[in-house]
Amino acid sequence: MKAAVMYQQGEMPQYADVPDPVVKSDDELLISVKAAAIKHFDKSRAKGTHYSAENQPKKATLIGGDGVGLLADGTRVYALGDGMIAEKAIIDKRRMVKLPEGIDDASACALPNAVAGSAMALRFRAKMQAGETVLINGATGFTGKIAVQVAKHYGAKKIIVTGRNEQTLKSLLTLGADETVLTTQNDEDFIAQIRNIHSQTPIDIMIDYLWGHTAELLLASFKGNGSFTHKTRFVSIGSITGDKIQLSAENLRSVDLQLSGSGVGSWTKDEMKLLFSEILPEMFQLTAENKLKVDTIKVNLKDIEQLWEMEVTDGKRLVVVI
Known about the structure:
The chain is of the alpha/beta class. It has 2 domains: about 1-110 and about 270-320, Alpha-Beta Complex (Quinone Oxidoreductase, Chain A, domain 1), CATH 3.90.180; about 120-260, NAD(P)-binding Rossmann-like Domain (Rossmann fold). It is built from 10 helices and 15 strands. The protein has helices at about 40-45, 105-115, 120-125, 140-155, 165-170, 185-200, 210-220, 250-255, 270-290, 305, and strands spanning about 1-5, 15, 30-40, 60, 65-70, 75-80, 90-100, 135, 160-165, 180, 205-210, 230-235, 255-260, 295-300, 315-320. Strands 3, 5, 6, 7, 14 and 15 form a 6-stranded mixed β-sheet that branches. Helix 4 links the parallel strand 8 (about 135) and strand 9 (about 160-165). Helix 2 packs across helix 9. The longest helix is centred in the C-terminal third of the chain and has 20 residues, at about 270-290.
């Protein structure tokens, strides 16, 4: 069969012939893959730069950790597996979801990673309640756009979005966002705008995809002066603009601030079960009913070498169609 193969960590994947995968346990199933998304997570794991790949052996590997395809009986499912950017793959039958009618393969395989990067943080780390105000830092990417819609679906009273692309940022107003904040303005103006928003409508939750300097500015904008403060839950999900920040101890002591992270390794087994039994089925159905917007760019498996490093803008997800 044909597959995307990374022969050496950090190199470009190649379109190559490999043996068909073989089922080895009762928890595994063979799937004929129809579509698999190329995500930052897949790229960083393939390069060995993601924390979950630090102890992985540096050998030839098939790329892709999830996708959409057909089981032997024709059932169409989304599932986690190994080497999913291939014509066939082995999936974990405990981590698959039957897809509803009305959702296309590209949308179905693009959505789950973004749902995990938004709904899991909102539900399990931030403990979001309907009527709360949510700020999404770095909302112009694919996951950020999904996060806006998920927060709205979960009953957010107000959604503030930040980003550097003004046009894309404004487009989020049509998806449920209420106010935009440009990260390209100078630091003083950025902090002043966040403080003004927080004083008028206290921010309950901050979902952060950027970390780095903008996270420093956001946290600095919440620094208190000895008065009672509104509790804010800050959840780190991504670190696109830097893995480390400087955080003043006074920041933590002067404000009712909860810091946490949401990602692979931070979720419990029960939370993962709910992702597959409740959260993903609900989001797939919303997409099938055109209540959740998913933007994708479809490419062919044979072009993987040319498209691996393709820059995708405007909050879209690159999807390999097989």
